[in-house]
Write a structure and sequence with these properties.
Length: 392
């Protein structure tokens, strides 16, 4: 009997060790534990949630005080802190991405005499993801709608979407916030207007006879919005207080690049740019998330390439473009009655996804007699990519 109990105890202890190890691996992947904690297999003690949300110091957003003496205001802030801290993996990703993008935003805010706290708007809007999108059609780091982005100088068309460019979109956000502040005289109200629109906010201010964000009854999302930004500021200003232990090696490296300018006299494959930069297609797309599809449109482009690749780039690019043009003498095919994309692809012995990429076509949309399709018969035909010709 003792032998059986001893064996059972050993199995139970072994299972506990396995579970603890798996838990540590999962948590280390979120950034909650650093590498040293994983190696030592000693869990970090998280502060209690009650300790997390207990805020005694005076708080401000862009220098404007948060009315924590108002119990309702305190409750709203505590709610957002609790909800954000519940999603610890997401916060860990905020922390990891911050060294990559926040220095760019901070520098641009500083150069334009804007409050540093506005950088937390980008955290809440997109979690610092260039391809973040909403159901309403907002895209990019600052979640601009198409119309608003274009109003503040962003190029948004079939080839380029600068809402995904950290530099261009941040400059647009600065222009928008400057206009909102000039209109409303408050950064807190400006943030609320950024979320719900200035006309809607002004209407509520007039109707409710109040210019105090904390006393306005606004759409529920906007009532939470500034508090979420303040919660992000609290957490990212002191991550260790909230149980996020990490080393510099746990963070993603800052952006490192050379900026080049090229002239394309016709639509040019991004792959040619990648070859000239001694890198690969994905690297160019990742550094330039505003580029849509697989080609650069004819015209002048300012691009980021891997750091150190600018030396000799122009010579390599011109040579590669000439080689590509010589090899790929394009043929224009005019769509005939009865044609479809599949039959055309089979006729020219090219994969259908490649035909869609060459012509920036959506495979779900029909073609019509008289449409003109570009065919590159000598192009490599091994590509098996997703047929969508646009980034999501």
């Amino acid at each position: 009997m003792l032998c059986k109990e001893s064996r059972s105890q050993k199995i139970e202890a072994h299972m506990k060790r396995i579970i603890l190890t798996l838990l540590l691996i999962i948590l280390s992947g979120t950034g909650i534990f650093g590498a040293q904690e994983l190696e030592m297999q000693q869990p970090t003690v998280w502060p209690s949630l009650m300790t997390d949300i207990k805020t005694t110091q005076a708080l401000n957003f862009c220098g404007e005080p948060v009315a924590l003496d108002n119990q309702e205001v305190r409750e709203r802030l505590e709610k957002e802190l609790l909800l954000i801290l519940w999603d610890r993996p997401q916060v860990a990703l905020w922390i990891k991405r911050s060294p990559r993008y926040l220095p760019v935003i901070e520098k641009m805010l500083r150069e334009n005499d804007m409050p540093d706290d506005l950088k937390y708007v980008a955290i809440i809007e997109s979690a610092l993801r260039p391809h973040a999108g909403s159901r309403k059609g907002a895209i990019g780091f600052w979640q601009f709608l198409n119309s608003t982005g274009q109003k503040y100088g962003l190029r948004i068309n079939a080839e380029i979407d600068e809402r995904r460019n950290i530099f261009a979109s941040t400059l647009a956000a600065i222009k928008y916030f400057k206009e909102l502040y000039a209109m409303l005289g408050s950064w807190t109200l400006s943030a609320a207007a950024y979320n719900m629109g200035e006309l809607g906010l002004q209407s509520e201010m007039v109707t409710q006879k109040s210019k105090d964000y904390y006393r306005l009854y606004l759409p529920l999302e906007t009532q939470r919005y500034v508090f979420r930004i303040i919660a992000a500021k609290l957490i990212l200003s002191d991550p260790e207080r909230f149980g996020f232990q990490y080393t510099p090696q746990d963070l993603y490296p800052p952006l490192a690049f050379d900026r080049i300018q090229i002239e394309c006299f016709q639509d040019t494959p991004i792959q040619v740019v990648a070859q000239a930069a001694n890198t690969y297609f994905k690297a160019i797309k990742d550094l330039n998330p505003e580029i849509r599809g697989h080609f650069l449109a004819a015209g002048t482009h300012s691009l980021l390439i891997p750091q150190g690749a600018a030396e000799g780039f122009d010579v390599r690019f011109k040579q590669l473009v000439q080689q590509w043009q010589a090899k790929n003498k394009e043929r224009v095919y005019v769509v005939q009655t009865g044609d479809n994309l599949t039959s055309i692809a089979e006729r020219f012995n090219v994969p259908l996804p490649v035909l869609l990429i060459w012509n920036r076509l959506d495979g779900k949309k029909p073609i019509h007699p008289g449409d003109r399709l570009v065919i590159y018969p000598n192009e490599t035909q091994s590509t098996q990519e997703d047929p969508a010709s646009r980034d999501p």
